[in-house]
Amino acid sequence: SHGCEPAQDLVNEYISPSVAMSPAEAFYAPAEVLPLEDCLGRIAAESVMCYPPGIPILAPGERVTAEALEYIRYAKEKGSKMTGTDDPEVEKLYVILE
Fold first, then answer.
1. What's 76's DSSP letter?
2. Quick check: 96 and 30 in contact, CB under 8 A?
3. How far apart are CA 36 and CA 73, in angstroms?
4. Is the N or the C terminus of the chain less surrounded, counting Cβ atoms within 10 Å?
5. Is residue 57 a contact partner of residue 75, using CB atoms and an 8 Å limit?
6. Higher pLDDT, 52 or 90
7. Closest to 95 in 3D by CA, of 62, 49, 68, 73
8. What is the largest CA-CA distance in the chain?
9. pLDDT digit string, tens, across residues 26-46
10. Torsion-angle region of residue 42: left (phi > 0), alpha (psi -120 to 50) or beta?
11. Whole-angstrom Cα distance, residue 82 to residue 79?
């Protein structure tokens, strides 16, 4: 299982969630779709998962941080599969209307 550790370290280093509301609140809140780069500081309305290593980068109700955006870009460059988002390319993200 040693092959997984660098990715694990990377995620731990990069992603510290900034929770703004509960997933249930986020799920029912009105949302809009924005280009990824415009989502900084907004509250995610959907989750972003990355395989490997299969760790959530963002969950509904978490604020979109610079680290999260950087990690999404990094993971896409590395060819990681992203799941959870409406947009399979993760160019856009659903965020809560504020």
1. H
2. yes
3. 10
4. N
5. yes
6. 90
7. 62
8. 43
9. 999 999 999 999 999 999 999
10. beta
11. 9
Taking CA atoms, 92 is separated from 5, 8, 15, 62, 70, in Å, by: 29, 25, 19, 16, 14
Residue 52, preceding peptide bond in cis (omega within 30° of 0): yes
Residue with token string 């896409």 = 76
Residue type, 86: D
Amino acid 39: pLDDT:
97
Give CA separation, 76 vs 18, 36, 62, in Å: 22, 13, 20
Two structure tokens written together for 75: 């993971």
| Residue 10 pLDDT exceeds 70 | no
Reported confidence tier of residue 6, pLDDT bands at 50, 70, 90: very low
Q: Return the structure tokens found at 82.
A: 């992203």
